[in-house]
Specification:
This protein has about 170 residues and is an alpha+beta fold. Helices cover about 25% and strands about 30% of the residues. Strands 1, 4, 5, 6, 7, 8, 9, 10 and 11 form a 9-stranded mixed beta sheet that branches. Strands 2-3 form a two-stranded antiparallel ribbon. The chain is globular, with a radius of gyration of 17 Å. It starts with a strand and ends with a helix. Residues about 1-5 have low confidence and may be disordered.
Length: about 170
Amino acid sequence: MPSETFFDGYRCEICGQFHAGQYISIGFDTPEPYAALDDAGKESAFLGTDDCVIDDEYYLRGVIELPILGLDEVFLWSAWARVWQEDYEDFADHYHDEGRETTTGPYKGRLGNNLMGYDPTTLNLRCSIKVQRVGVRPLFIVDEPEHPLALEQRNGITLQRAQQIASLLYHQG
C-alpha cells in the first residue's frame, strides 16, 4: 500500500465527496516484484529503506518529481528502480559519502512500480537515476520521452491532475 503526504483537501472525481488533505507525495514501500513474493521468497530477499535485492535483481528507491503548475510545490512519486549489480554496489559504496552527487552515477534503470493513473504501465519503464546529496533519495528521470509520465515530468501537472491521482489512490482496492 502506498504511503502519502497531503495538505488542504479536494473533491474526489470518483465519489464526489470532499476528502481532507491534498496528496503531493505518494510512495511505494517495496518494488512490485518484492510485494508479489510469498513469505518464503520475502525471507530469502533483502529489503532495506533505500534498497532491495531479490535473487539477482537489485533495486534502489528514489523519487520522480512532477512540477505542479502555478505552485511552488512538486508532486512526488517515491518509487523503486531495478539497476545493474555494479551500479547497486557503486551506490552502496558511496551511500554515506559527502559530495556523492558529483562523483557517482548517473545510472540507468527500469521502474519497479506501476504508478496509478498511467496508460501504458510504468512498470519496467526506462529511467536515468541521478544521485543526490547524502540524505536525499536519487532522482529518477523517465527516459521514454513520449510516455505520459515523462511528459508530466517535463511539462508539469495541474493541481486537478494531482487530485485525480489522489482520487485513484483513495479508492484503490
